[in-house]
Amino acid sequence: MAQKVQFDVGLILDSGSLIGKMSNISISMAIEDFYESHPDYTTRVVLHGRDSDMDIVGAASAEEMLS
């Protein structure tokens, strides 16, 4: 069995809003469904979510400082 390679992806959403919650669930389900359909893929997308707190610029700059 091949070793899985992790591919980190940042995801900034307003987790307090309905659209942010729905987006997070939809994206996670899509990734899960994709890998269920393609079990032989060794690269795995790993989401790292951040809450924008309704301030996308502040959330983006905070993420940049952490990387």
Automatic annotation (TrEMBL):
**InterPro entries reported in the protein's UniProt record:** Ionotropic_Glu_rcpt
Q: Which organism encodes this protein?
A: Acorus calamus (Sweet flag)
Please give the superkingdom of this protein's source: Eukaryota
Its keywords, alphabetically, are: Receptor
Name the record gives this protein: Glutamate receptor 1.2
